[in-house]
Design a protein that fits this description.
By secondary structure, the chain is an alpha/beta fold. It is about 45% helix and about 15% strand. The chain contains 15 helices and 13 strands. The strands form 3 sheets. Strands 3-9-8-7-6-4-5 form a 7-stranded mixed beta sheet, sandwiched between helices. Helix 7 packs parallel to helix 8, helix 13 packs parallel to helix 15 and helix 14 packs across helix 15. It is globular and about 55 Å long. The relative contact order is 0.16.
Length: about 375
């Protein structure tokens, strides 16, 4: 059965394979013994290799050990976890925060803790898979609205049963398209119709907003969204997920959220690294400046070459190809040219929208960006894509 299914995926150009990188995740990596420009990492601010962040992980590991031992309700909370949650709450401007071993785990367990079979969920059609799975696991009535379409969302809200508990679920930045959710209009609708918003700000935290607090700061709706989720593995450069909100909400999750109660806490070194990364974000705003400058250089270059881009507003710059086979061919041609940017294909993205999802970081140099653009031009022309 497995061989048949794998062959079917291979025939459809949808088979996925792991590749081994033998270096840290930076603007370049070592792949098969070659130095390759990496244009697919979510390490937006380069903090995964920042000396302060790495040293914090090392020091905490020496002091507290490599692992946490058990779930925190079983063997207690280590100081690095408590420090991280206090830092997250201060950074996000909320009363409290709670960390999870992974962002996926946070979504699939927090949403069911928030709403059950008597509730109603409206989610953006392009929500991350973890949000979709969390909505389904909740047992609530689950409906999707057209991507970013607040008129469609309002139509659904207006037709729902009176007084039914309703949760609106969305990404802040959509991970495969790079656009930003219309949070201000969404907050208005939530207030008008008595709904609540749950936002996954995995790709917004650290890069959006005047101080890097994320999508809600960028859209000026921080006080109007009660449930903020995010990851520590992207701009923050570590690993894990978190929920931020009121102290009562966080205490409720500690007592009801299965993904927290029944999972061993992240290693203390990971928590310490995330705390240090948030401090770097606050102390080195020039990293965000470099990130957005690099984003403009890459975006302008792609547009000048004639590639078809999604309507991105972020450091995620998807080059839309359409056919999965052609997307795979472009990814391979880029790799031959010294650029690692894998093809993204269904079911990760909708049918006929296979793409090369390019991401830029603050640590990429002008020379690396220009080399990547030259490689994209040669590969694109050889495949008649531009």
């Amino acid at each position: 059965m497995f061989k048949q299914q794998l062959k079917k995926l291979d025939d459809q150009h949808l088979l996925r394979r792991l590749r081994t990188i033998s270096s840290a995740t930076g603007p370049t990596v070592l792949l098969d013994g070659r130095e390759i420009i990496l244009l697919s990492s979510n390490n937006y601010l380069g903090l995964a290799t920042h000396p302060t962040v790495v040293n914090a992980a090392i020091e905490a590991t020496h002091r507290y050990g490599a692992g946490s031992g058990a779930a925190r309700l079983v063997c207690g909370t280590l100081t690095p976890h408590e420090t991280l949650e206090n830092t997250l709450a201060r950074f996000k401007g909320t009363e409290a925060a709670l960390t999870f071993a992974a962002g996926y785990l946070a979504n699939i367990s927090a949403i069911p803790a928030l709403i059950g079979k008597d509730g109603l969920i409206f989610a953006d059609r392009l929500c991350h898979a973890s949000l979709v799975d969390g909505c389904r696991l909740s047992g609530a009535t689950f409906r999707v609205y057209r991507h970013g379409d607040m008129n469609h969302l309002e139509q659904l809200l207006a037709r729902r049963p009176a007084a039914q508990r309703t949760l609106i679920v969305t990404d802040g930045i959509f991970s495969m398209d790079g656009d930003i959710a219309p949070m201000k209009d969404m907050a208005h609708l939530a207030e008008r119709y008595g709904a609540e918003i749950y936002v996954d700000d995995a790709h917004g935290t650290g890069i959006l907003g005047r101080t890097g607090r994320g999508t809600l700061e960028h859209c000026e709706v921080e006080s109007r969204v009660p449930y903020q989720m995010g990851t520590l593995s992207k701009a923050i450069g570590s690993a894990g997920g978190y929920l931020a909100g009121s102290a009562t909400f966080i205490t409720y999750l500690v007592n009801t959220c299965r993904g927290f109660i029944y999972t061993t806490a992240t290693p203390p070194g990971i928590a310490a690294a995330a705390t240090a990364a948030i401090q770097v974000i606050e102390q080195e705003p020039e990293r965000r400046t470099r990130l957005w400058r690099n984003r403009e250089r890459l975006a302008q270059g792609l547009t000048r070459l004639g590639f078809r881009l999604a309507a991105s507003e972020s450091p995620i710059l998807p080059v839309i190809i359409g056919d999965p086979d052609r997307a795979m061919n472009l990814a391979q041609a880029l790799l031959t040219e010294g650029v690692y940017a894998p093809a993204i294909r269904p079911p990760t993205v909708p049918p006929a929208t296979s793409r090369i999802r390019l991401t830029i970081t603050a640590d990429h140099t002008d020379e690396q960006i220009d080399r990547a653009l030259a490689a994209l031009e040669r590969a694109g022309r050889s495949l008649n894509l531009i």
